Amino acid sequence: MSEEQNELEGKGGDSLHDSVPVTGMYKDWFLDYASYVILERAVPAIEDGLKPVQRRILHAMKEMDDGRFNKVANIIGQSMQYHPHGDASIGDAIVNLGQKDLLIETQGNWGDVRTGDGAAAARYIEARLSKFALEVVFNPQTTEWQLSYDGRKREPVTLPVKFPLLLAQGVEGIAVGLSTKILPHNFCELIEGSISILRGEKTNVLPDFPTGGLADFSEYNEGLRGGRVKVRARIEEGDNKTLIIKDIPFGTTTNSLIDSIIRANDKGKIKIKKVVDNTAKDVEIQIQLAPGQSPDMTIDALYAFTDCEVSISPNACVIVEEKPVFLSVNDMLAYNTQLTRELLRRELEIRKGELMEKLLFSSLEKIFIENRIYRDIEECTTWESVLETIDRGLDPYKPDFYREITTEDIIRLTEIKIKRISKFDAFKADELMRRLQDELAEVNHHLNHLTDYAISYYGNLLQKYGKGRERKTEIRAFDTIEATVVAANNAKLYVNRSDGFVGYGLKKDEFVCDCSDLDDVVVIRRDGVCVVTRIQEKGFVGKDIIHVGIFRKGDERMVYNLIYLDGASGRTMVKRFQVLAVTRDREYDLTKGTKGSKVLYLTANPNGEAEVVSVSLTQGSKARVKVFDFDFSAIEIKGRGAAGNILTKYPVRKIQFKMQGASTLGGLDIYYDSAIGRLNTDQRGKKIGNFLGEDRILVFYKSGDYELTSFELTNRYESSQVLLIEKFDPAKVISAVYYDGAAKAFYVKRFVIETSTMNKKFNAISDHRQSYLKIVSTDKQPQVKVVLKKGKEIEEHEYDLDMLIDVKGWKAIGNKLSSYPIDDVVLLSGASDDSGEEADEELEVGSTLDFKIKKDEEEDSDDQLGLF
Question: Mutual orientation of helices 383-394 and 329-370 as an angle, nearest 10°?
Answer without folding.
Answer: 100
